[in-house]
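Priority: medium. Attachment 1 of 2:
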């Protein structure tokens, strides 16, 4: 599908958008749509307002069935009511008033208020990005911040079901076309208006146990028909040795999303094959999925979800598995599925790792942090405290002016990332984001917005860190609720399942990274690290002189 307003095909980025606001928006969307390669600190941490409302509506059902607690649902509703305030896609008058009025009170299932919420969601969904397009088609000084707009558009398009791979190609086009903000917004709105269409998807198998059970099915293809299908649709068949396969028809917004549906179908098939008795034969797929009309095969293995524990490599711990097994070992094993595993086990394992490390029998029992939700809040605090160092260190390495300046030379003599981060923080505090020059960096269009965010942070850390920690808390509590729906409700089709994993996986990786580092470097217990983080968020930039760079350092 070509961008409806900005030309045919993605192509290479030949020039940035000329409008600085549009350039910021497009750079951030490129971050959000890059599955592998974007560091956790620059990824998309939240879901869109429409999906969040649908998630809240669904939560009422699970509360009635005892899967989610009333306290958890009330917390979810109150946080959502606060977050949607600046959302221009919710309209300015009647629609917004009706919605915010409903969210002020509990929404039990069944109730008139919950039935009204369902109707309101339908009105909100229709024209959501059109209202945003109108909101940014105003003078720059009247627009919302580009960070908010880029996050809003990106999260909504992903929530609709577009794949990150398709959206990454879509977001490149405005660069080459030097599009204005209004053109980019209208193009996004056009995507939101585009209905799903049917795609034929081939899932080819190398090994087909109990073939006689597959052959009567109408979408089954013998190996000769698999090869014929590939040739009919213009695919190269060299090296393809199928034992058979299935051709499914899915409705999807783009070929990659159709392939993902095929991947999930294959996961269900593979799970069933694990229960075969004879020799424990299992379904063995070929390494690609093919979509009719898409020129290239799509890898069967999806991109990793961004849960990176870099300490294991950077500090040499990857192969150090001898000796007594620790809680860290157990947590890493529990969370191992989070990057590439099927969604339900990935959610369950990721949350199990967080809960095992950051909950304790003395935790509160009767308030909004009851149950294990406090573990999400503790992990959020740890991640929020690690965010400044991660971004400031990256900016230090990416400051590459055409001619070396004093800052380049000062960074070069630093011996640790902590020193580099301190140096960049001091420069940003004294001179602002303009002090950094990313001309020679390949990621320069993403680095500029990061520098602006860090300049805001070092000048007034507490409100910025509070907002960031709040976003992390919401994402991780969503992971907890999703886990409860899977394990206690026995449901793997929750409306926010995929989005929960998309937003939380990189955060879980970042938190585990800091926990592993503290355990190996200091012998520090995860709960003690969380306590350090919670205290640091209250003391930063105060009478103790605690810097944003040192939030997780011992006092």
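Attachment 2 of 2:
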């Amino acid at each position: 599908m070509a961008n409806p307003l900005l030309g045919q095909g993605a192509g290479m980025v030949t020039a940035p958008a000329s409008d600085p606001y549009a350039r910021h928006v497009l750079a951030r969307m490129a971050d959000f749509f890059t599955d592998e390669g974007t560091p956790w600190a620059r990824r998309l941490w939240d879901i869109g307002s429409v999906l969040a409302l649908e998630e809240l509506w669904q939560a009422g059902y699970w509360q009635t069935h005892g899967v989610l607690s009333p306290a958890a649902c009330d917390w979810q509703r109150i946080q959502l009511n606060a977050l949607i305030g600046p959302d221009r896609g919710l309209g300015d008058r009647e629609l917004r008033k009706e919605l915010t009025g409903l969210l002020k009170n509990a929404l039990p299932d069944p109730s008139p208020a919950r039935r009204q919420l369902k109707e309101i969601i339908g009105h909100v969904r229709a024209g959501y990005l059109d209202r945003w397009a109108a909101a940014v088609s105003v003078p720059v000084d009247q627009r919302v911040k580009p960070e908010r707009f880029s996050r809003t558009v990106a999260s909504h398009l992903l929530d609709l079901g577009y794949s990150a791979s398709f959206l990454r190609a879509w977001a490149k086009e405005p660069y080459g076309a030097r599009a204005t903000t209004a053109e980019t917004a209208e193009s996004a709105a056009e995507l939101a208006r585009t209905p799903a269409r049917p795609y034929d998807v081939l899932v080819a198998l190398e090994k087909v146990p109990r073939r006689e059970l597959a052959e009567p099915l109408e979408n089954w293809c013998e190996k000769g028909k698999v090869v014929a299908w590939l040739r009919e649709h213009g695919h190269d068949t060299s090296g393809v040795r199928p034992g058979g396969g299935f051709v499914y028809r899915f409705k999807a917004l783009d070929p990659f999303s159709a392939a993902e549906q095929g991947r999930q179908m294959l996961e269900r098939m593979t799970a069933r094959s694990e229960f075969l008795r004879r020799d424990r034969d299992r379904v063995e797929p070929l390494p690609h999925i093919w979509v009719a009309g898409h020129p290239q095969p799509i890898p069967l293995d999806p991109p990793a979800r961004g849960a990176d524990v870099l300490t294991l490599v950077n500090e040499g711990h990857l192969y150090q598995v001898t000796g007594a097994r620790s809680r860290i070992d157990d947590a890493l094993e529990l969370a191992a599925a989070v990057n590439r595993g099927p969604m339900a086990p990935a959610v369950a394992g990721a949350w199990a790792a967080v809960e095992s490390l950051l909950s304790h029998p003395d935790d509160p029992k009767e308030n909004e942090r009851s149950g294990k939700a406090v573990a999400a809040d503790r992990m959020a605090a740890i991640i929020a405290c690690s965010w400044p160092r991660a971004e400031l260190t990256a900016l230090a390495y990416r400051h590459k002016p055409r001619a070396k300046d004093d800052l380049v030379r000062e960074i070069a003599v630093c011996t640790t990332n902590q020193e580099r981060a301190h140096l960049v923080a001091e420069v940003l505090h004294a001179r602002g984001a303009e002090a950094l020059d990313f001309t020679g960096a390949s990621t320069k269009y993403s680095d500029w917005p990061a520098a602006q965010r860090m300049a805001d942070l070092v000048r007034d850390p507490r409100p910025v860190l509070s907002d960031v920690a709040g976003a992390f808390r919401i994402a991780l509590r969503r992971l907890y609720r999703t886990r409860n729906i899977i394990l206690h409700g026995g449901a793997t089709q929750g409306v926010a399942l995929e989005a929960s994993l998309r937003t939380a996986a990189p955060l879980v990786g970042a938190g585990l990274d800091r926990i592993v580092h503290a355990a190996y470097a200091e012998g520090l217990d995860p709960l003690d690290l969380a306590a350090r983080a919670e205290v640091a968020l209250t003391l930063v930039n105060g009478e103790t002189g605690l810097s944003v760079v040192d939030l997780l350092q011992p006092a």
